[in-house]
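Our example pasted here:


***
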Amino acid sequence: MEEYKFILIGSIFIVSGIILYILTYGIRRNGIKTKAIVKDHKLEFDNEDYSIHEVFEFEDNKGKLQHAKSMLGSTIGIYNKGKMVEILYDENNPQRAIPNKPYLLHIYIAPILLGIMLMILHLIG
């Protein structure tokens, strides 16, 4: 089992990157673009890990004030409270929102690349 640890860990990274990409694909493709204010940060714990999610306040396309926790979390808040940012939200479920920033693709790509590197390490190691 020891000899397969890089493949196992690499597979976990690759699968998590793909799952995160799939979960946000619909919003990135069909989401409604709007401006939002970062009202707060929500700290979430998962075993020993934690992530910080911004809470956005915005008006939806029907003029209703909405609050949505970002689907994407990080170990540090991406935006400060009070900052005006552009987001994408799901018209059918406005509580599903993500920041509209192309550079956030690293959230999907980084685990996939790390997983591939771990598998290569196994092959050459």
About this structure: Residues 59 and 65 are 4 Å apart (CA to CA). The beta strands are 32-46, 49-59, 65-69, 84-90, 93-99. The mean pLDDT is 86. The domain at 2-124 is CATH 2.40.50 (OB fold (Dihydrolipoamide Acetyltransferase, E2P)).
